[in-house]
Amino acid sequence: MFNTKQAPMETEVNQVRDVVANQVYRTTKYERFSFLDGNRNLNPMHFERLKTAIATMDLTESNPILVNDDFEIIDGQHRFEVCKYLKKPIYYLQKKGYGLREVQMLNANMKNWRLEDYVEGYCDLGNEEYLYLRSFLAQHKLGMMSSVTILSSMGGGKALSITDGTLLLPNKERGETIAKWVQQLEPLYAGCRRKSFLLALVKIYSIRQFDFSQLMAKLSYQQTKLVDCTDMKGYLTLLEEIYNFKERGTKLRFF
After folding, report:
1. What is the overall mean pLDDT for the chain?
2. CA distance 54 to 187
């Protein structure tokens, strides 16, 4: 007879215990924390959105800020400021030796906001300049930076002003006029929305004696002369030549 007695089953199972990797602390001693030089500035739109979210449902205990051994904030500046404003406790993790390099690595791995995202965010906050810009973009479809260029000044720093909430558009009348010019020019020249061409129109707009109807009349029989140029100066030279074609007397200079 075969022995049918079953072999004893193994009763001990190797179990792997989870290890506590980081300790989360809680405090209301806001004064012990500081910002790290070189970290990104606070964004007022992000602050307002986060303030509403945390006031509605505070999940910061599950999403603590990250600080180094000097209590400099590596990640979570906005969370810290919102909790401080709302007089809520600060939950934090502490990592010794962390500094600007780790800040930059964390920022690089986060999803970057598009300029359109910032515009939408400031519109949500009721900022009138951003509301106007959003409407202008939807109506004229000239592109973000081109639209801001013709609506604001000719200086630099436009992208920064969009993201930090300080955007000002003092040249709305100019922008609307140039947008209408583009609409009329588009059947004659497909490149009329190029940034360098729009910059040329901004320059021409400032010339008091310029008559757009005269330019359109000259283009009606010189359309083939309007071609792509590499920069604003090239377009100004070309448009000046077309505008002054067969003109007698003093010719209008565009630059």
Report:
1. 88
2. 52
